[in-house]
Amino acid sequence: MIAVFFLSKDTSQKELNSVEQTLKKFHLVTNVRFISSEQALKKFKVDFPELRQIIDNLKINPFPSSLEVSLSEKALTSNEILGFIDEMRNMKGVEDVQFNRDWVEKMQSFSKLTKAIGLFLGGILILASFFIISNVIKLSVFARKDEIEILRLVGASNTFIKTPFLLEGIVLGICGGSLSLLFLFLLVKIFPFYLGSSLGVLNELINFRYLTLSQSLSLVGGGAFIGFSGSLSSLSRFLKI
């Protein structure tokens, strides 16, 4: 969560240092970054290229210097931050403060809703994968019916007969997980490139990142487990040994 403290144009270096030190001493502040008016102008032109001509026509820089403050997650649920913001607003050298707590809470609520929808859709995909692999193994069992009968006649054990089908399900699950990683990689790399700068300032909020190594291994391992479970379920129903 970020709060921006806009400084007056006539703010002295002493006042700037005083404001900066006061911000750094507050226990809910994790980082303070000074942004000059020139940096603010440059950032605006990058985030909003369609408005660049309007700024150029002004012949002046309308953006004040500011202090961009990163707040800890505790600040969202702490009422103490509101009193601190009001105190800083009245401090000499501070012209205005941008801190929209309601907007942040709405964004976090939207994030929780998105995660819930993702879990719901993920559950549906897991069930679909389970039944697809189960049906594939079922067809495989029927296709090898004669081979299974021969193995039974020569005295093959149940484990020996079932193992190839279980391995097939595991391989299918691993392949499915690997393909998911590939499609996710392409999505993460291509989708932001396709959007380009059309998101404008939302580029700061929407961050596309790839899975970590542990998450990738978990996805592939989960696919293998689903493949094994689907195979086992299918064999218990359609392979009577």
Structure description:
This protein has about 240 residues and is of the alpha+beta class. The chain has helices at about 15-25, 35-45, 50-60, 80-90, 100-145, 145-155, 160-195, 215-240, and strands at about 1-5, 30-35, 65-70, 95-100. Strands 2-3-1-4 form a 4-stranded antiparallel sheet. Helix 5 runs parallel beside helix 8 and helix 7 packs across helix 8. The longest helix is centred in the middle third of the chain and has 43 residues, at about 100-145. The model has no long low-confidence stretch (mean pLDDT about 80).
Number of domains: 2
Largest sheet: 4 strands, antiparallel
Estimate the strand proportion.
Answer: 5-15%
The assembly state of the depicted protein chains is: single chain
Average pLDDT number: 81
Number of strands: 4
The secondary structure category is: alpha+beta
Q: What topology does this entry show?
A:
Blueprint: E1 2-7, H1 13-25, E2 29-35, H2 37-47, H3 52-58, E3 66-71, H4 80-89, E4 94-98, H5 101-143, H6 145-153, H7 158-195, H8 213-238
Antiparallel strand pairs: 1-3, 1-4, 2-3
Helix pairs in contact: 5-7, 5-8, 7-8
Summarize the structure.
With 241 residues, the chain is an alpha+beta fold.
